[in-house]
Amino acid sequence: MDRADVALIEALQRDSSRSIAELSDAVGLSPSACHRRIKSLEEAGLVAGYAARIDPRKLGLRLMAFVEITLTSQSREAMDRFEAAVQDFDDILDCHLMSGAADYLLRVAAADLDQFDRIHRNCLARLPGVSSMRSAFAIRQIKPWRGYPVPKS
């Protein structure tokens, strides 16, 4: 990756809805060169897709919960069953295999505690192989995720 690729990746992470002309102005390339580089970044898998960042509060999702899950077994089969089951629940926003005390960390959004209770009973409690579950609620988001830092070589 050269300087132009780094600038393009940063610009796309900030706002991928901009036109090629706007992006090319922002990174100092011609529109055709900008378009070629974007296609090259997509083909290389660096740009894996495009999505809008949605404000969860505008959807009525005011409660963000982080749920630590510990499994009864860390066998490949137990982990595969758990990971497959997680895919079936839209209420689970993120799932990460962790090091440390918990095996997995999940992120869940809900309108309020009543909805979280329903998610807990109808989703989280149905996940296979869980020996313990511990939830923590975010009080306030300090820094929203805006993209990955791009190494400048």
The top level CATH class name of the largest domain: Alpha Beta
Beta-strand percentage range:
15-25%
**Class by helix and strand content?**
alpha+beta
> Quick one: how many beta strands?
4
Helical stretch tally = 5
Using only C-alpha atoms, the radius of gyration works out to 20 Å
Overall CATH architecture of the largest domain: 2-Layer Sandwich
Unreliably modeled segments: none
Number of domains: 2
CATH topology heading of the largest domain = Alpha-Beta Plaits
Ends apart, CA distance between termini? 8 Å
The overall average pLDDT, rounded, is 95
Widest sheet, order of strands: 2-3-1-4
CATH superfamily of the largest domain: Lrp/AsnC effector binding domain/regulation of amino acid metabolism (RAM) domain
Along the chain, the helix and strand elements come as: HHHEHEEHE
Query: How many strands, what sense, and barrel or not for the largest sheet?
Result: 4 strands, antiparallel
Question: What does the model show?
Answer:
The chain contains 5 helices and 4 strands; from the N terminus they run H-H-H-E-H-E-E-H-E. The protein has helices spanning 3-14, 20-27, 31-43, 76-86, 113-122; strands at residues 63-71, 92-97, 104-110, 130-137. The protein has a 4-stranded antiparallel sheet. The N and C termini lie close together (8 Å).
